[in-house]
Amino acid sequence: MSSINPLPILLSLGLLFTITNAATFDVVNQCTYTVWAAASPGGGRRLDPGQTWNLNVAPGTTMARIWGRTNCNFDANGQGQCETGDCNRRLECQGYGSPPNTLAEFALNQPNNLDFLDISLVDGFNIPLDFSPTSSACRGIRCAANINGECPTELRTTGGCNNPCTVFKTNEYCCTDGPGSCNATDFSRFFKQRCPDAYSYPQDDPTSTFTCPAGTNYRVTFCP
């Protein structure tokens, strides 16, 4: 009978699995202006044009998102406010941001050993965005249209373009009455025509959710 203790081997295999399936996100600012990047989980970081923020995201992370904030002003303690995407007046975000903000959303290591990713305009649009893999051949997604410049009058706001749910707060636009309770509208079609990869309203799933193999690394680019 072997005298080898299997526990260290199992622990080593578990550690290897964790390392293999963690994900690195490079958040890149290619805009001509400063973007205060935000991540949940992850916090926040000021990115001047050309700068990159490297994030390591734990395997199994779900309901996660990365977005950009604009026209921010923070003091030495990281307290302040942003015109778009503000998260509780903090440089180091805790929780989600305020609309309008273009979202890169993801869930890692899900069933069938897949990552799920999307770009969402359900909270509106403030910055053009690309969300692409850097270590797999799976498909990248982007929303780089001039949505702020073409935004319908009813949805216009300082620094961005609101989603109609933010403005009107009805089930027609927010889908609050559950699955199948709402459909595409003229407003959601405005977003979808310009950014076919992105969620245009909460139940826009069939054409808006994408997958990559678990363990893939990613790049989120502002102003691609």
UniProtKB/TrEMBL annotation:
Keyword match Signal: yes
Disulfide bridge partners, by residue number: C31-C223, C72-C82, C87-C93, C138-C212, C143-C195, C151-C161, C165-C174, C175-C182
Instruction: Give the top-rank taxon of the lineage listed in the UniProt record for this protein.
Output: Eukaryota
Q: Does the keyword Nucleotide-binding apply?
A: no
Q: Which SUPFAM superfamilies match?
A: Osmotin, thaumatin-like protein
- Keywords on this record? Disulfide bond, Signal
Pfam families given in the database record: Thaumatin
Q: Where is the signal peptide?
A: 1-22
Q: Which InterPro entries is this protein grouped with?
A: Osmotin/thaumatin-like_sf, Thaumatin
Family note: Belongs to the thaumatin family.
Name the PANTHER family on file: OS03G0233200 PROTEIN
Q: What is this protein called?
A: Thaumatin-like protein
Organism whose genome encodes this protein: Dovyalis caffra
